[in-house]
Amino acid sequence: MYADLREKVAVVTGGSKGLGSAIAIRFGCEGMSIVVNYHTDEGGAQNAVRAIRDAGGRACAVQADIGSEDGVRRLRDAAASEYGRLDVWVNNAGMENRSPTDKLALEDWNQVINTNLTGVFLGSKCALEHFVENDKPGCIINMSSVHEKIPWPTFAHYAASKGGVELFTKTIALEYADRGIRANCIGPGAINTPINKEKFADPEQYDTTVSMIPMGRIGEPEDVASAAAWLASEEARYVTGITLFVDGGMALYPSFQYGNG
Known about the structure:
oxidoreductase; glucose 1-dehydrogenase [NAD(P)+] activity; 8 helices; EC 1.1.1.47; Sc_DH/Rdtase_CS; NAD(P)-bd_dom_sf
């Protein structure tokens, strides 16, 4: 637990399920107040709100399209009106879909880039405006992926978006460091979230994925939420511009694990 997080206010995009829900609930356990964003899954967002309140935090659910400026401003305004401040912004909302690159439709490319990269830009910009205008420090956490580093054939648009998130985050970290504003990425590997439910239900695909992880297990959303809580806290006050991989070693070229090569 991080005592300095108590009473702080966070916006978490894509907070209705998976990693976003886990991060929001962990923040609630820290005594924070959270604006839980959702796009279509209001029920999931309300479940997260109840879990946060049960954990001792405060929370509200706010519908918004994070790929639009009006949407992210709605989230910032909710933090200000409901809780009177903003300290942490987590750009978690994301999506993926599979396609050979030669068959990848421009519509699908644009949809993934708009959600995964433009949404991160808009959310970060909105948070930066607030921190700068109020002359206060702040923390931005952007959800990247091991695929900011590892190429992923048939997911070129997803990998491109996450590579963009990495360099965008490093850039704003450098640009605003002297104002006390920190920006970092979390790079999850294979995590047991709803987006992976169907894949991990197939024993063959599950075993193949585990074989790519040096620690030999699939991660849980709470593993990522713990990393987010640390990055948001004063324990990480001297940390900015990094990607914290939460991946069981997946990004460490596991085929070389036993001295192969």
